Amino acid sequence: MTHAIALTRSGSTHAGWDTDFEHVSIGAQDAGGGKRPKRFAIAAAALALGATAFVVADPFESRSGAPTASVAEAPVAAADLAPGSMYHVVDQIGARALWEQGITGAGVNVAVIDTGVSPVESLAADGKIVAVADLSAEAASPATAFVDGNGHGTHLAAIIAGREPGASPADSAAHPETFLGVAPDSGIVAVKVADRAGDTRQADVIAGIDWVIENSADLDIQVINLAFDSGSPLDYTSDALSAAVERAWNAGITVVVAAGNNGEDVVGLASPANNPFVIAVGGALTGDELGVAEWSAVGDGVRNPDVVAPGVSIESARVAGSDADLNHPTGYVDDVTFKGTGSSQSAAVTAGLVALLLQQHPEWTPDQVKAAVTRSATPIPGSEVERAGAGVIDAVAALAADVTDAAQGFVAASQPIDV
Length: 419
Hints:
Blueprint: E1 4-7, E2 24-27, E3 38-39, H1 43-48, H2 86-93, H3 95-99, E4 109-114, E5 129-134, H4 152-161, E6 187-192, E7 200-201, H5 202-219, E8 221-226, H6 240-250, E9 254-258, E10 279-284, E11 307-310, E12 314-317, H7 323-327, E13 332-334, E14 337-340, H8 343-360, H9 366-375, H10 385-388, H11 395-400
Parallel strand pairs: 3-5, 4-6, 4-8, 5-6, 8-9, 9-10, 10-11
Antiparallel strand pairs: 1-2, 1-7, 12-14, 13-14
Helix pairs in contact: 4-8, 5-6
């Protein structure tokens, strides 16, 4: 059976591109002069993993959305920024306190398996985008290969690792006008599996995960960010996508997935968030109020979101002319900024935290990373565990968490023959 994957289109009461931005869902259906990212063109190997195409092209050459010259910004007061600005999100989860200790994600690369990543200003620094791969249906065309025509992947990548030229984590508290992601010195490996409309196949997502596993040692990939859900009714033990994320986990890669945006309309997490090994992230309110977003996925009491993280109107990188940019005008903030809402954004915030933890503790296993994130979370009074999991992520507490006894003993997923 062939599966198709598409970005979730939000309803009036759920998350979206700030209508808002949105989480990615799977539905079962038939810069010139600088250091450039590594590119890959091993077609036979990719096709063996199930990819439709795997084509080499220069993602920084003859592309729309090329990085623009940095423009000096006027100082702004932190109080004038929206709660969903990365300046406030970083403080909400406590990441700035880690920056002040020199923990900025340096040396940790995060694979963003999504719609691709464009070299926007906050992601255009030398070495920021470490490598790119395109396993999507658009890979065969030089005009679309490696390009993020949707905008989703770029938005998430900047939340994780964006760093505006000239911005410094060390003195960031005094410069609210600058943009910094949660782990501003981490690197991004962009694995494109979805097209401009957000459409893809389950086989391509699985191929992207397996590609990351195969290349993790060479590219120093320690984290996967995955904002997909399948809507699959299968138990995690017999679901192909679930088996794929578990392979990555067992290979030593911490996998962070979006829990979903269905709110109370659907009880239970879909694959791959239903796999109990990985870190499934729901949406928390942004700002001073401690709470779970109404659209955040609800668990079934057996498998629930592990934690929640800020996910409401998160301001991150805009890809001019992308599908999101053209079809969700209410998400526009300014020429380089777009706001989005959903567990996609929440997962990206959490993936950034994971990168910070792994800089300080490169010896931690994925089980230990998950224990640090969940054991240190701030409980949300009045919120059921099915909605809030352990609570809102806390970077300072996570860094100090005792994870010596962390080990998960769930039943392993098996790989179905038909994917």
